[in-house]
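Students often ask why we bother encoding 3D structure as a string. The short answer is that it lets us treat folding as translation between two languages. Here is a chain of 327 residues written in the first language.
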Amino acid sequence: MNAPKKEHVVKKEDSFTKNILENVVPQSTFVLGVSGGADSVYLFFRCLQLQNKFVVAHVNHGLRGKNSINDEKFVKNLCKKNGVKFYRKHLHLKKFSEEIARDARYKFYEEVRKKAKAQWILTAHHLNDNIETMLFNLIRGAHFNGIKGMTITSPSRHLLRPLLGITKKVILAKLKSEKIPYRRDESNNNTDFSRNLLRKKIVPLFVNINPNFEQTFKETIHNFSQTNQYLEKDCEEWLKKNTENAHIDLQKFLNTHAAFQKLLLTHLYKRHHKSTKKLTNKHLEEVLQTLKLRQSGKKKEFGPDTFLQIARDPKKSTHYIRLIAKK
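And here it is in the second language, the structure alphabet:
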């Protein structure tokens, strides 16, 4: 009974090696984001087994008093003990939100990446994180691109997530068997935070219905990702064919299927803003309603610093779509 379980755990862990071999240049340097929690400590020790050099970036959010200080000390000592260079940053945010803290954290990671001349920034996101991301995006009304979950790589942001195929259960089992210590964040138990509520209350209900929920959802993520890659290629080809001087032919756009129109808008949004995190299906519907008016000068907000505007080409007597900056 015990042997098959152990073999299954090893098989799941192999996805880490596969993701590293497929994406990391041999002998190159990378940055490892380490909070001190179970996931990042697990990733730290997996990376010690590689031939690559890596440095650690730690962000002290200063939100948990002595616990935040002790997290930093733990990670610093972990690096010192294993001969790994340690970078840290203290955040002093006037206004806190999960999003603001995340943006500040990744900004620091990128600063460290440039300083270390590193290829990638490695984060410890695992399969259960990805399941939560997909469910969260689905609940908030994200379009197709938003519900495909995280990908192994995000090249434009230099992010590599080598643990995406590994479950939290496997991570904790490995740390326990190897007697590897890690820090615990009590705020992860606070169900006032949406993600914690999903993790603690909602996901267990799915597991009750389907005990193989994690593996099933992993396959679903893979299917969504494959489909999205195919559709993004179609969108890119259509835009190349129907864009002239950054102007998109409005009539040709409106002649496409409604579902493809949303995909094209999503692709444009992602191309300009590098992410579709704030793009919802409701907002896409509102943009489409504006475009269908075919009124020159009409515009609709299309991200934090951009409008999508309808303009008229007097030479061709046609309308086109263009992106303009907010003033």
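Translate back mentally: The chain has two domains: 2-217, 243-325. Keep this in mind for the problem set.
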